[in-house]
Each structure stands twice: as C-alpha cells, then as structure tokens.
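Cross-check.
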Amino acid sequence: MTRTVVVTGLGLVTPAGVGVEDNWSRVLAARPTAAVQPELAGLPVDFACVVPDLDGATRPGTRRGDRLDRFQVLASVAAHEAVEDAKLDPASWDDHRVAVVVGTGAGGVATLAAQSAVLGERGPAAVSPFTMTMSMPNMAAGQLAIEFGARGPSLGVSTACASGATAVGLARDLIRSGAADIVIAGGAEAAVTPLHVSVFARMRALSRRGVEPSLASRPFDVDRDGFVMAEGAGMLVLEDERHARARGARVRAHLTGYGASTDAHHVSTPDPTGGGVERAMRAALADAGVTPADIGYVNAHGTSTPLNDVIEGEAIARVLGAGAVVSSTKGVTGHTLGAAGAIEAGYTVLAVERDRLPPNANLHRPDPRLDLDLPTVARDSAVRAAMSNSIGFGGQNATLVVTAP
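Predicted model, tokenized:
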C-alpha cells in the first residue's frame, strides 16, 4: 500500500524573520531584506540578506554555540519550531521510526575560514578540536538527530542550491518506502562570508546594485543583474498520513510529488534549453498524479540572474502553459543557496494552506520573453496544488508538488 505523506510542521529562519509568521508577513508584503553588511566592507559586493536578531546559543534545544557552526544553529532553531508546530513530543515518539534529512550546499564554511586563519596566525595548537564536527555538511542532520533522539536514518544531502528541495523529496521517499513514520527535513546555509561573497562576485553571479541594495534582488525583472547572497534554514515535519491522523495532528498539506533531473551541461551555467528543469517538473507532476491545469501557483527558483530566470520561466510556460501564476520569494529573502528549496517549500505549503499567493518583490518591468502571470502584490486565490522549483550548480534540479489536504 502506498503511504501518503503529509506536512504537519513548519519552521523558518530567514532574513525575513525568525519564525513562520514573521516570514509569511514579510514575504506577502514584498519587503526586501538586502542591506550593507559590515563584515563585507571593502569587497566588490558589500551587501547581503542575513537572519535578524538570532541568538541561537540561548534557544531551547541548541547545544553550546561555540561548538556549532552558524548553519547548524539555523537548522536547529528551524527544526525546533517545526517539531513544536507539529505538536510532537520527542520524549514519547518511537525514536527508531524518526528520521532526519538536511540539505546544505556549503556546510560549515564560516568555521573553516575562521580556523584556517587561526592556523596561519597562531599555529596548529590553537585550532579548535571541534572544527571537523562544525564544518562537515552532514553534521546539521547529525546534530538534529542527537538533539531530538531520532534514531532512524540520518542523511546529509548536497545538491548545491537544490539541496533543501532534494532533502525534502528524499525524506518523502523514506516515508513512502516504510523506512520512517516521521522525518524532520529541510535545508540550512550560512555562507555569507567574505570568501564566498568574493568567489560569487568573481563569477559575476552577484548583483552589483550596491547604491540601493534593497532593490538588488529582482527576479524576472528585465533589469536584473545577479542574485543577492543570503543565509537561512527551512524545516518541515513530514509524516505518514495514517500516523498523523492517529495522533490527531493538523495536516497542513500533502507532499504529493517529487521530481529530479540533471542537465549534464555545465558546472555552473544552466542548460539554455531548460530541458533539465522541465524534466524535473514533468516528473513531479506525474509522481503527484496531477495535470498542469491543476497547478495554481509556482514558487520559482527565480534567482534574479540574467540566465536562470528566462530559462526557468520559459520552461514553466512550456510545462504549465502561458499565464501560469509564478513568483520568486528571493526578491525578499535573497538567495539562501542550499537552504532555498526547503524555505520555499515552506512558503509553498503556506500558499496552499492559506489560499494566499506571494508576490514578486522588486518586479518593475517583467522580462518580455516570459509569458507568465507574475503578481507584484499578494493575491487571494484558492490553490489545490502548487509547485516549487530548485536548481543547483552541477545542473541538479528538483521540483516538489504540494496539494491541499
């Protein structure tokens, strides 16, 4: 018997706020978060989107802050919100049936950069013994498993900027296969560092609109010139529907479809035909058993780069038809890299649950090549099914389909 997978909990920690409600309010209001960051002073790009007012070391469930990289802290804060939202008690669940899957593109890069500087300045005896466990990409999942006592499968996933969506899709498959009843799944990233910003600037991937940073992330706008670096985490609690119903849980949405593909084209440039992301979308639709006409909203990858937005937008129009309703929430949050797919899956769940579609922030002149409905203000619309796309370096694509209960 095929197991139906539902979403019973959400946790969001992004530049739009710490917590689901703060996130949702700011995304619906289309208020961008990009601002000049002191730690980036003197770099070619000195602005980014960062999580506000986060004191992870004092939050329940997070272990000692000096032994966790920031990406692990972000994951922990989001995961605790999601588990609390699902009204789960780790003290009473069947811990062998609880799994954790967390995606990240970079892992603990801030720790590596800091400890590399310590090594050069003070020598090997000064290097932290926790460097390895703070920097390894799998350790967000490992730390969460320890915090929650989850003894099912624990997986770290890295498919670049598709990592969060891939993690959610694989978590769905764990439940479908019978390997788990509950999965804490999502993505986390904290790569707003001078090194990473310098590298992306050298690649000419970042917006240079430094005079007005709040206007820099502008997906689908004809004047877009690159993405804005960001950090954050998004976590979902997924459950077998029978398990959730048996305990009287609120079902926020169904996670119905997952599709993945690879461009096999270039390490950083998307396939100009859009064939890879198109295959992921079609696979997710088939997996969900829905038609293109059923999709009432698409949360696009929409990075605000000249190449991605038109390639993805044209692929969406081919799959769903002209006039598909599409927005990219990166106009508000910036690009959270490996966390983006999970954060945006959370926004997609909220759109379906609350019949409210997020707008495109900073969209003043839509690219004329795109035959899409690109709202610039939040829109009330009953949505039975929605789609979320993620695209990563290496040509790795992931699409999720969320449906109403």
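The two ends are 19 Å apart (CA to CA). The mean pLDDT is 96. Passed to J.P. for a second look.
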